[in-house]
Each structure stands twice: as structure tokens, then as C-alpha cells.
Amino acid sequence: MNFQNPIQWDLDLIKRYDLSGPRYTSYPTAVQFDPNLQPDALVQAALSTTDKQAPLSLYVHIPFCAHVCYYCACNKVITRNRDRAQPYLDRVYREMEYLSSLYDNNRIVNQLHWGGGTPTFISDSQMRELMDHLRKNFNLRDDDQGDYSIEIDPREASDDTLRVLRECGFNRISLGVQDLDIRVQEAVNRVQPLEQTERVLNTARALGFQSINMDLIYGLPHQTLSSFDATLDEIIRMSPDRLSVFNYAHLPDRFRSQKHIQSDTLPSADVKLDILQHTINKLLGAGYVYIGMDHFAKPNDSLAIAQQNGQLHRNFQGYTTHSDCDLVAIGVSSISQIGSVFYQNEHDLSLYTDAIDQKQHAIKRGISLNEDDRIRSAVINQLICHFSLNPADIEQRFNINVATYFAEELTELAQFEADGLITLDKGFIQVTPAGRLLIRRICMTFDAYIPKQTPVRGYSKII
Questions:
Q1: Where exactly are the structural domains of the chain?
Q2: Phi, psi (5° rounding) for residue 261?
Q3: SS3 at position 140
Q4: Cβ within 8 Å of residue 87, ≥6 positions away
Q5: Taking a C-beta distance cutoff of 8 angstroms, is the pair 58, 112 a contact?
Q6: Which residues are annotated as a binding site for [4Fe-4S] cluster?
Q7: Does pTM top 0.85 for this prediction?
Q8: Given 125, 196, 334, 426, which residue has the most CB atoms within 10 angstroms?
Q9: Do domains 1-28+370-463 and 32-330 have the same CATH topology?
Q10: Each residue of 271-322: pLDDT tens digit?
Q11: Which residue ranges are tagged as binding site for S-adenosyl-L-methionine?
Q12: Is residue 93 within 8 Å of residue 133, measured between CB atoms?
């Protein structure tokens, strides 16, 4: 891997392999989580497989939003009643105490993330309160050396709020931008002037936030190649440390808010591909590194450095540098990854609330990984993070013969090699520049749970 990260745009390959498939923030994916597994059994399996000396990653989900963005597919609660936040936070504190009793063991918290929803929906005093409870229950760092991040809607973050966040210990922010064109913003009910975004960016930099990410979405109503190019010009000028450029999947039957978006205002599939190709070329030309899928970073960013050093990892928060951390997730719909166990809380806010009131936890479903799951997870994580796989690493770690264990998969990989997606050399897999955009499809080869040649319900298109 090098910082050049060349991408070869092969339209024929893209159209041939652009099926639906997982984003592999976990393997097995959440689709395989079993609601029939007992929470106590999941917790005991987590406790028996976790390394109690390893550091932790904490995630807190704040589901509330004051306004609905029509494109959004997140688990959220739309309300302008700020009084709804405190009862929810009170339940979060109860769950937090329960989780601390299970997993704390004074393990240092190297990563913290608040997501949503809109985490800045809660008041500044509630942010301080939430952080105080986290510090009371877990061993948070106080040296500014952890990755402590929060998702921010620039419409919901004053300069005072940013100061409070910095004082609380946050050193990274992710700004939702999506698109800067006013016509697009109006169509998705998210009017957010450039000046508003830039104010938050400049204030955060002045306060000493170490890393700033911006989220963009391509495929939104009224977007054109030229309009998105204008957005990219402004984004590059603002020079965030990281960028996420997501594909909008129009699924109004699954996400009610998307019914407000008229299908005939969406760019065609060909235009979307043109926008993506142009975006990749423009960001690479501006000096960003293609991390994978829809993520870019400056060469000196920790993500790019971790990828260069072979230490990049992927979890429910996306690409991360903290492969050694168990992920303890708190709040409605949040997903924990502890030892060899994944489990997820109730999606519905009222069910989450009732569960915490009755039993201190709200675990709804999960999975305990078997040996095959662990092997395939390691393979998929290596490929999706580093675009290569040395079979000797897997053989040494799991005491298997890769050629025998994955005999069927290697047959499928031979077709990928013939098509120019990968090269194979004595079992060593190297993803080509033409294959990097299709890494999800390559990883699907090693997924034991899903069919490979047909669209899979519940997953987005690969590109």
C-alpha cells in the first residue's frame, strides 16, 4: 500500500459487479444477528472472550433531531421538544452503570464517539453531564491523546457549544454537509449555508480540534456533475482532514422520510457514476488518500498512516485506528462488539426505555462468533482495510491451510483475477486499482451467509 492509491475506473467492471452487498462494518453483519439468543448468554460469551486488559472504545447514541432530512436512513426521533432528552439520558446513565460493572475493569478508553440523530440536540449542560457520567463509569483519558469524536450538524452547534465540547475532551468532529447547492438542500429539507458550515469549521480549528471530517452525499435530487463539482471546490478550499462521500440509496418503502423525495428529480445511474468518478479524481488530485469505499483522508491523517502501517481496522463506526479495542455501545439501537460477540439494543425508543427500567439493559439481538466466523472476519477486515491478503498471516493466526479451507472461494477469485479485479500469487491476494472500488464484492466471496450473484435484500448497492 502506498499513498498514491491509484484508482482505475473501469465502467464495464463496475456495471458487471455492482450488486447489493454489505458494507462490512462487522462480519457476520447485523442481518445475521439472532433475536432468539438470550441476552444473558450473549453477555457471558462476551465476558469469556474479551481481553480485560485491552483498551475500550465507547459509543453513545443520541437519537433526537429537531428537523428531518429527507434522505436520512439513521435511527432517529424527530422532535423539537428538547425536554425529551433528559428522560432518555437518565436511561443512558442506568445502562452505562450496568455496562461499566461488566466491562470497565479500569480499561483505558482510547476511543469515544457520540452519534445520532443529532448529538448536539442536547443542551450544553447535558453534554457536560453526559461526559461526567462517562468519566465516573469508565476510565476516560485526560491527556487529549485518545480519539474522542462527535457528529455535528452545523445548524445545531453554536460557538459556545463547540467550546463546551472541547472542554469536555472532544478533539475530533464530523460535520454533516451533504451538498452546498441551495436547490439540493431545499429538496432534502436541509438548508445549510456555506457560511454556517465554515463558521463551525473555523471555530473548531481555533479551539484546537485535531481532526475534522465532512460528510457528503452523491445521488441527491437535482444534483448534476457541475453542481457537485462546485460543492467539491468549496470543500477542498475548506480542507477538512477527512471526507466521507456516501451514495444515496432511494428506498422510500423502507424509510418514510424519503417519500418526500420525488424519484424524477434524482440523477440517473449514469450521472451518479459520473459524479463519483469525478469526485474520486478531484479528491485524489487535491492530495487526499483513498482509504476505501467512500472514505478519503489527508496523507498525514491517522487513518492514512494506519493504512500505510497495516493497522487499519473497521467496525460499526467505519474505518478506525483502534483494532485492539472492544466497542461498548450505549443507547437505543447501538451495537456493541466485545470479544467474539456482537449485540444490538432495541431500535424503538419506548422499548429501549422500558427495557432499561426493567432490567438495566436493552439487548434485542446478537451473535456469538464461531471459529469460521472469526476466520472469515479476519480475512474480510484485511481486504477491506488494506486491499491485500497474505495467507500466511491467516494460517499462523488460526492454524489452517488457506488453500484447503477456502478452496471454493479461491475458484471464484480466479474469475476476479481473469477480470482484472485482483492478482493472485501463491495465494497472496492483491486488489488491483480497478478492483478497489469493488472491494465489497470481493469481500462477499468470503461471506458464508449470503448469495454472491444476486442482489441481497437489506443491503445497498456496492457503488
A1: 1-28+370-463, 32-330
A2: -95, 125
A3: strand
A4: 353
A5: yes
A6: 65, 69, 72
A7: yes
A8: 334
A9: no
A10: 999 999 999 999 999 999 999 988 999 999 999 999 999 899 998 888 988 8
A11: 59, 71-73, 116-118, 151, 178, 190, 215, 249, 335
A12: yes
